[in-house]
Design a protein that fits this description.
By secondary structure, the chain is α+β, with helices and mostly antiparallel strands. It is 30% helix and 28% strand.
Length: 148
């Protein structure tokens, strides 16, 4: 089974539930690439497309990829401890999001799954609800709070 067969149904479900854009990024050298994207159900939202290249140093997805690729110091130590990163205005002043790492069967990082929207809709309370929605859908999660 390829990762799209696993990730895309999850991403569509999150999009239906939350309404915001859902992205999956992979690391390629010193940048991240949007591999999968489900657009927001709203008319106004971030405009990232499949294939877009973005910085690793800004935004929730990039921070998660760096953290689980061995980057040291803060905020990366906290990201590894909490398994998520919330960002507001970091990549774009009008954009906020939350990302979590995605691991393969061998527990190797394969990418970052993120929920992204405009700062007027995606605030700290929204991101905390989104984090819970993502963690509840982790493959193999049976209600355990144990991290991979």
């Amino acid at each position: 089974m390829n990762q799209g067969e696993v990730l895309l149904p999850l991403m569509r479900s999150l999009n239906r539930e939350l309404g915001e854009a859902i992205s999956f990024h992979i690391r390629e050298g010193n940048v991240r690439i949007c591999l999968y994207r489900i657009s927001s159900t709203y008319n106004i939202g971030p405009q990232v497309r499949v294939g877009d290249i973005q910085s690793l140093e800004r935004g929730a997805g990039g921070r998660v990829l760096l953290a689980f690729s061995g980057q040291t110091g803060e905020p990366y130590d906290t990201v590894r401890r909490c398994y998520y990163y919330m960002s507001s205005g970091e990549r774009d002043p009008e954009t906020a999001g939350i990302s979590v790492p995605v691991f393969g069967e061998d527990r190797k990082l394969i990418g970052a799954l993120g929920i992204v929207g405009p700062v007027n809709r995606v605030d700290i309370h929204y991101m905390k609800r989104s984090k819970a929605a993502c963690s509840l859908r982790r493959p193999g999660n049976r209600g355990s709070r144990r991290r991979p």
